[in-house]
Design brief:
This protein is α/β, with parallel strands linked by helices and 213 residues long. It contains seven helices and nine strands; from the N terminus they run H-H-H-E-E-H-E-H-E-H-E-E-H-E-E-E. The strands form two sheets. Strands 5-4-3-6-7-8-9 form a seven-stranded mixed beta sheet. The chain has a two-stranded antiparallel sheet with strand order 1-2. The model has no long low-confidence stretch (mean pLDDT 92).
Length: 213
């Protein structure tokens, strides 16, 4: 669990890479520069920890590419104390970035192996989400709604209705939609029935799985 000057230096290089790809939000760049991504990966892969690429983790999932994490996080426009629902905890890397920004994070993971591992691991690093839940992300988390924003970290073949309904008015849902290739999509809730939709090009994610528990 070491975070050395070398790691910090590599993180700053990663921040520059992400910046050069178009991320401008200083708080997001600061979080990418702070979260020790190498600790979220198996120790054998340290050489890859600060490259801007996705990487396999347990349960056939991946730790997202840092640029993708930064891109989705920037779209959320996170403010301190924002109540955020994350669908797909995974390694906890995105969760940690949101915690670093001062958000109150509720995160759902449907792979038991990952859920157990990440639940123990995040607090060891000093990241304390409000709630980590083992369950079906398609349903969202009705009992804690509404949320300032919702982030989906897996490719969704369609937009789950419960997620839209659990947003505050003015709230933002960032979700990659599609089967093989996903279109990064932002929904902004205008009022009870009306949503504004924006699309931001192609990304690749592992699939969001439904009702597998």
């Amino acid at each position: 669990m070491k975070d050395t000057f070398k790691h910090k230096g590599l993180r700053q290089q990663l921040v520059n890479v992400v910046k050069n790809k178009g991320i401008t939000n200083e708080a997001v760049l600061g979080a990418i520069g702070k979260v020790p991504r190498h600790l979220f990966m198996d120790s054998g892969f340290l050489d890859y920890a600060y490259k801007d690429m996705a990487f396999p983790i347990a349960a056939d999932q991946t730790i997202s590419q840092p640029y993708t994490v930064a891109f989705q996080t920037e779209l959320l426009q996170v403010k301190k104390e924002d109540k955020i629902l994350e669908i797909g905890t995974g390694s906890g890397y995105q969760t940690a970035v949101l915690c670093e920004l001062g958000a109150k994070v509720y995160s759902i993971e449907r792979q038991q192996e990952l859920f157990k591992k990440t639940s123990k691991f995040l607090p060891k690093l000093g990241y304390r989400p409000k709630k980590l839940i083992f369950g079906d992300g398609y349903k969202g988390l009705k009992e804690e709604a509404p949320f300032d924003s919702i982030i989906v970290t897996a490719g969704a073949p369609f937009v789950p209705k419960p997620l839209l309904s659990q947003l505050k008015i003015g709230g933002r849902l960032v979700i990659p939609v599609g089967d093989d290739v996903q279109i990064m999509t932002l929904f902004i809730r205008k009022d009870t029935k009306e949503f504004e939709q924006h699309e931001f090009g192609e990304f690749r994610f592992v699939p969001l799985l439904e009702d597998k528990n």
